[in-house]
Amino acid sequence: MDQLLTPPHRVAHGMCIVNGIRDLIDWRSGRDWSNEFVFGLGQGSGFAYIRAKIAKPPRQVYWGMATSRQHEYLAQLLGADYTVIENRTFKFAWNKVREAVNAGTLPVLGPLDMFHLPYYENIYHKQHIPIHYVLLVGYNDQNAYIHDTDKGSVQAIPLDELELSWNVNVPALGKKNRLMTFDIPKTLAPNDVLIRKSITDKCQTMLHPPVNMLGIPGMKKLAHEIIHWPDELGGQTTVACLLQVREYLNTPPDITGNHLTAARELYIAFLQEAGPMAGLDFTNPIAHLHESMGVIPQLAHAIQQGELEEAAHCIRQVAEFETKAYTAFSELVARAVCVIETRNAA
Question: Is the model's pLDDT at 1 over the cut of 60?
Answer without folding.
Answer: no
